[in-house]
Amino acid sequence: MGFVNVAWDGDVHFFLLDTTVHPDRQREGIGQRLVEEAIDACRGHGEWLHVDADEALMTGFYEQRCGFDRAAGGVLDLTRGSV
Predict the structure, then answer these.
(1) Domain extent for 16
(2) Which stretch of DSSP H or E encloses residue 50?
């Protein structure tokens, strides 16, 4: 019904990846619960949990429902050739 993955750098940074809920079960609080459980699992083991999402998900889901703050970041398009 749902899935979330957390990667860790072994120090202070966790990365929330692939939060997914089956389309038939969306808008039932499952995604929020998965993220809450990921947050709980990370607490006490590092300092930061990062997430990257499109604008709609970032604003409506991660910020408003899950309590994330917006932060500056960068991205490099690896399909673009050399820098």
Answers:
(1) 2-63
(2) strand 48-51
